[in-house]
From TrEMBL:
Protein name: DUF3071 domain-containing protein
Superkingdom to which the source organism belongs: Bacteria
Residue numbers spanned by region Disordered: 210-237
Originating species: Candidatus Mycolicibacterium alkanivorans
Family annotation (Pfam families): DUF3071 (PF11268)
InterPro entries xrefs: DUF3071, SepH-like
Residue ranges of every copy of the DUF3071 domain listed in the record: 1-170
Length: 255
């Protein structure tokens, strides 16, 4: 919270004139019931100083500093409570400056592992997007200055239903200057390997198939034939030979 110093009353007697640390910063504070209650230390109005939203009137250079750092006109107007038309009046030249920085960055050369590339940033990104089936014409560029004085460049594009952004660090210099990738998306876009499709489809080998041999029919199981029993003939009695009869020999060989 900024500290103000009361320097007197306005000519109408209904406003208090205050100034900040810079004498050029002048503020007008209406003398109303809230101010009188706050001066008396009376909190009967049900509000404390912390409950009162304080709006700050920014100086033109403060507006431009916020815009140059990446804020939008709407963001500055909302945070300061100023009318958006007043913010736009001072923001316009800085917005042109940001647009020019982004345009210059597209002509810079990406810094790779082996040094600056021959292609420009725009040429590298166009090749990478073409490899993905996208067009570089559907991209948007923006830039803003950091506290260290260097520029951050943002490239945004849409792939399908997803919104994507990539960020680069832009250093102006000879031959267009250089850009360095800040995030993974930026690194992938300036990678020379992405000039070819990300997922190339390998050609399918044409295999020569021989005609399969004719299937061998499965053997048919035959029903087993009923076993044939050998017929046994009736046992015939042993007839002794004639000489056995004469000699008195039995058929068993005993005498």
């Amino acid at each position: 919270m900024r500290e103000l110093k009361v320097i007197g009353l306005d000519v109408d007697g209904r406003h208090i004139i205050c100034e900040g640390r810079d004498p050029a910063d002048k503020f007008s504070l209406p003398v109303d019931d809230r101010l009188r209650a706050a001066a008396r230390g009376d909190r009967s109005l049900g509000q404390t100083l912390r409950d009162i939203e304080v709006k700050t009137v920014l100086r033109p250079r403060d507006i431009q500093a916020r815009i140059r750092a990446g804020a939008s006109v709407e963001q500055v107007a909302e945070s300061s409570g100023m009318d958006i038309t007043k913010v736009e009046r001072f923001a316009h030249p800085v917005l042109l400056e940001r647009q020019r920085a982004a345009e210059l960055a597209t002509a810079a050369h990406p810094v790779l592992a082996d040094g600056p590339a021959v292609k420009t940033l725009l040429e590298s990104i166009s090749s990478a997007l073409a490899a993905r089936g996208l067009s570089s014409e559907a991209t948007s560029w923006d830039a803003w200055r950091n506290e260290d004085g260097r520029w951050t460049v943002q490239m945004a594009w849409q792939a399908g239903l997803s919104d994507n952004v990539a960020h680069f660090r832009f250093s102006p210099g000879a031959h267009g200057g250089t850009v360095t990738a800040i995030d993974d998306a930026a690194s992938e876009l300036i990678d020379p390997d992405l000039e070819r499709p990300l997922r190339p489809v390998a050609p399918v080998a044409q295999l020569q198939f021989e005609e399969p041999p004719a299937p061998i029919p499965a053997p048919v199981e035959e029903e087993p034939a009923p076993p044939v029993r050998a017929k046994r003939g009736k046992a015939r009695p042993t007839v002794p030979a004639w000489e056995d009869v004469l000699l008195g020999v039995r058929s068993s060989g005993e005498r």
